[in-house]
Amino acid sequence: MASERKAREHSLKTRKAILDAAEKIMREEGYAAVSSRRIAETAGLKSQLVYYHFGVMDDLFLALFQREEERFFVEHARAMSAPNPLRALWRLSLDPPTTRLTQEFVGLANERTSIRKEIARSKQRFRSLQTTFVARMLESLGVGDASELSHVLPFVVVAVSSALVSEKGLGISDGHAAVLAYFDKKLSALDAEAFPAEARSLASH
Amino acid sequence: MASERKAREHSLKTRKAILDAAEKIMREEGYAAVSSRRIAETAGLKSQLVYYHFGVMDDLFLALFQREEERFFVEHARAMSAPNPLRALWRLSLDPPTTRLTQEFVGLANERTSIRKEIARSKQRFRSLQTTFVARMLESLGVGDASELSHVLPFVVVAVSSALVSEKGLGISDGHAAVLAYFDKKLSALDAEAFPAEARSLASH
DNA sequence: GTCTATAGGCCGATAGAC
DNA sequence: GTCTATCGGCCTATAGAC
User: Fold this and answer.
1) Is 0.90 topped by the overall pTM?
2) Which of A30, A32, A39, A53 is surrounded by the most beta carbons within 10 Å?
3) Which residues of A touch B106 (CB under 8 A)?
4) Contact A20, A12 (CB under 8 A)
């Protein structure tokens, strides 16, 4: 029936509105500010609808996290297949909206056991993707201690960019310019060495 | 009067008990779990005493932070004057109790404006101390681009150790061994270069 | 699927007796 | 300085009408 389809679409629309509102609050005011009432206020609907569509609050947070993880996975894959993958990963990790939300989820994980497992699983997933990628990259360069560096490099990139975003949120920027310049320089150089412009240009023919 | 002195001592004891309880809860369950009632329960006293001794909750958090900052400053100074200062700073930043609490205060800063300024001020203070210290160290080594590195090095050390502690809290340890080995090695080497054992041994005579 | 109404809990904070 | 008592607020979550 057409009415069933319409109802389903409407339901999806409400779910999206709730998730969007939750995400906005979480980004701007932190996970602690996310409540069914604040979501309702932001999305322009009644707080009980949150429970109707998502069950308990834990499930809402899980749904939001999974949506975010999917989105991040796409951006992550794009960064990895860029001509300068290390620098692209670095810039992606520097994106304030993305990283800010990730940090909030980590904070949330300290409070809610059901969330912690998901965050941990997701973090390990991306870490594994990055380590594998960098390992291949270093091997193709003939680097000797590729095993250690392939773990260290992605870890440092993510940790440092995360710290930059965190401090920016606190209104601090001491030394940030130096850190940005240093990593842009070093990562670009490594990218250029692993994926020389000539090879790329030849490969595309 | 002796009774006045006794009362003052008792008051200090209560204040300490409250701060200790708040710190314990914050460490174990996160800043969101710190409430006057939970403090009272943990410290074995009435929740109203929290307000009597500290005014509003913001002031309690400020008092706790300042106590913690003082403690950290002492440890920080000790690390800087160690024979291998960079590695000592690295190990200090890796201390879970210290770093875990710092991270909770950063989260708290997202919620409470009055706290944010204090956290930012303190972070800048330590950053400045570290940058100055590393700059002198690199200059004595005759490093050319000492200005950039003196900003990058402390930033990376703090960011990476913070990320290690954070992940450990989530139950993740993928690649941690490699990161630990790498930084221990690199920082120790830099320390040894700047403060050779012979120079130290001669200077102490 | 959305509404009104409401139960039950923890919170910050204050007033006033002792 | 510590006690009892209490107010008002925001929260999660559910019941039941439409």
Assistant:
1) yes
2) A39
3) 166, 170
4) no
pLDDT at A157 over 90: yes
Measured CA to CA, the distance from residue A155 to residue B178 in angstroms comes to: 10
Chain A window 58-87, residues with Cβ within 7 A of nucleic strand D: 58
In the 8-state DSSP scheme, what is residue B31?
Answer: G
DSSP H helices in B142-196: 146-170, 176-194
Tokens 């412009």 — which residue? A197
User: pLDDT tens digits for B64-111?
Assistant: 999 999 999 999 999 999 999 999 999 999 999 999 999 999 999 999
Inspect the interface and report whether the beta carbons of A181 and B148 lie closer than 8 Å: yes
Q: Between A32, A164, A172, which is nearest B120 by CB?
A: A172
Residue with tokens 């990562």: A187
Chain D nucleotides close to protein (CB under 7 A) are 1-5, 10-16
Nearest to B170 among A109, A131, A164 (CB): A109
Tell me the CA distances in angstroms from A93 to A160, A193, B73, one per residue in order: 9, 22, 31
Q: Is the pLDDT of residue B125 over 60?
A: yes
Which residues of chain B have a CB within 8 Å of the CB of A172?
120, 123-124, 127
Instruction: Name the nearest CA neighbour of B126 among A157, A172, A158.
Output: A172
Nearest CA-CA partner of B43 in B68, B66, B14: B14
CA angle A187, A193, A195 (to 5 degrees): 95
For chain A, percent of residues with pLDDT exceeding 90:
87
pLDDT beyond 60 at B193: yes
Task: State phi, psi for B35 to the nearest 5 degrees.
Answer: -135, 160
Residues 6+ apart with CB under 8 A from B127: A172, A174, A175, B154, B155
Burial class from Cβ neighbours inside 10 Å (0-12, 13-18, 19+) for residue B95 reads middle
Q: Which of B99, B128, B166, B184 to mutate to probe the A interface, most A CBs <10 Å?
A: B166
| Closest by Cα among A81, A89, A100, A72 to A186 | A89
Pairwise CA distance, residues B65 & B54, whole Å: 13
Q: Residues A87, A10: contact at Cβ < 8 Å?
A: no
Which backbone phi and psi does B157 adopt, to 5 degrees? -60, -50
Instruction: Give the per-residue pLDDT at A5.
Output: 83
